[in-house]
Specification:
Helix content is 23%, strand content 28%. The chain is of the alpha+beta class. It catalyses: (R)-S-lactoylglutathione = methylglyoxal + glutathione.
Amino acid sequence: MAEPQPASGGLTDEAALSCCSDPDPSTKDFLLQQTMLRIKDPKKSLDFYTRILGMTLLQKLDFPTMKFSLYFLAYEDKNDIPKDKDEKVAWVFSRKATLELTHNWGTEDDETQSYHSGNSDPRGFGHIGIAVPDVHGACKRFEELGVRFVKKPNDEGCLIGSYTAARTRAERPMINDYHLFYKMSNSHPLRPFTAVGEIDHVHILSEHIGALLIGEEYGDVTFVVEKKRFPAHRVILAARCQYFRALLYGGMRESQPEAEIPLQDTTAEAFTMLLKYIYTGRATLTDEKEEVLLDFLSLAHKYGFPELEDSTSEYLCTILNIQNVCMTFDVASLYSLPKLTCMCCMFMDRNAQEVLSSEGFLSLSKTALLNIVLRDSFAAPEKDIFLALLNWCKHNSNENHAEIMQAVRLPLMSLTELLNVVRPSGLLSPDAILDAIKVRSESRDMDLNYRGMLIPEENIATMKYGAQVVKGELKSALLDGDTQNYDLDHGFSRHPIDDDCRSGIEIKLGQPSIINHIRILLWDRDSRSYSYFIEVSMDELDWIRVIDHSQYLCRSWQKLYFPARVCRYIRIVGTHNTVNKIFHIVAFECMFTNKTFTLEKGLIVPMENVATIADCASVIEGVSRSRNALLNGDTKNYDWDSGYTCHQLGSGAIVVQLAQPYMIGSIRLLLWDCDDRSYSYYVEVSTNQQQWTMVADRTKVSCKSWQSVTFERRPASFIRIVGTHNTANEVFHCVHFECPEQQSAQKDCSDEPGTGGASAAGQQLDPHALQAPSSSSLPSSPGSNSRSPNRQHQ
């Protein structure tokens, strides 16, 4: 029977496929970066996209001169957002499929302002942004394909370094703008849009001043570069550059009228580009050779053009390859350009063996050479590094070869390599070779100074990077990235818990890698807790324990940090399950992070509140009308009926379980304060719910509202708050809990009662079973006669 055909005007499956083409190789690095929507009121929009749709606000960019703001949102973990401003911008623009909300200031108060659906003229309501490695190359390709351009990179009202292409009006889709952005293009400001009441003819000014350079008119100074003469104008050079101001108006020989100034250490091509930039503010980089671009970069540095230096560096980052990365790194190191240096290092780390065999490697300066091979992340086989350094020494005979050879990590080489490759070279003494053999034979394998791949802020325990689960039951579930679809029967890996800890779940990484951060999701569909430890190894024989939570109770997501280690194998061994003798893991991730962290006794010393729902904390004892009323951070919306967690005096307590053990030295509480009552209480902490240590005793103190509790820092997985007195009734009420105390969030709340609510995973009971504070239990409902905060309690 034939398949049903689509409605009139539609395409059959075959017709649809016939309209599609295989991607051109030049588009392999294209990235669907953003969809832009114009919004009227950011308050309503941000609330909708974060609270309703669950997105995270990644960054807000303001443009006061143009009176608009950009909000970038995506489904990302807020803890992954870099703190550094420049790193944050680069990170945001490297995300896939972000949402950009554009708000023109004042529209929220303009009743006449509205945006249509995008289906009618004069314009739609947004655009789709696609990040490309080379915007000019993409531009050229589109021209060759006959695509009609609405805006080009240097047009007014267009993003600098960006490009807009649209189809013809007859083919215009619902959202008809496609913006192409340089990857990592984070330093270019937006060019202002011309308002009706303003005149902006900067491009005309640039063209007219640039014409002076082309026409050689009114020139009063001449530069000579490689025997080529360059007439110029003193006043323009002095206005644009402090170096030329001092040179041409500083009373030196060059300040004489009609002077000819020879310039050394540069090329005519690079100086031509610099003069064009000085006169017009523009430079075309895409058609120049790498050598010319590096000379151009050196001139920008020498003559003090920091913006030009940044832009040129940024472009060089996009065209790095095996042939040019070494000379680019040499220049970046010489001029202390951190971003370009970092990008070169990352490229060389990921292509170490190819770099070692490239011609550019032989031309590196000694300083640049050592900076490369001394890096732990330059992860080529040590034999290949030795042979490459040997070749470099032959091509640079005037350098100190002994200093170069000290960069070789001889203990990482096999005995055969030491005797048959290193020894015949004559560059290392017999004692050095014997010392390496001794270190290799007497040291633990994990104590050797291994090299490893470094991929910052990216999970490398994936099939993309060649990782696999080699031990454990139900191996396929652990690295599939699914952290939502799991239950009692599927979606996890496991191993039986035995007394000798021989069982475990083992992951083999695709190659030796540098890691300092592991995330695991323990099975958490009920209230069970687990204990475990994690070890790493290079050879599956010598294991180093990097995480030891065998004496602690843990649940749900574990965010683990430790000093950076090079490893190939990672083993997770469960030692306890509060329900049965099986250890279950739903997901595993590992990476190297640049995020700062503090460790004490192997545990994290948190700087931010970890008693939150996002950090998988929960209230395991206590009564609350609304589940999660203690930990959600809401300290405003509470009253007589809701927004707090409580327990009966003399019976029970409020107990918070953190997801994992932390070194805690402070907590903060908000006691219910809608009237003038006071409480007494004490606080204990534990790592296993068996042994408790009192850290605060306020049983003989009248306490109200906000409570700051500090104590000697100690490990804690559980915090127990026990009320001992209430001047109004027989129930202890707590609105908010956090640890450690967030000083920046603390406010003076002693004068006014709160109206807040928080969120906790407290015990949820029948609201009708809860008593009002006017009797002997909880605050009364709003409908009771004793609703007034100033009423007298019974």
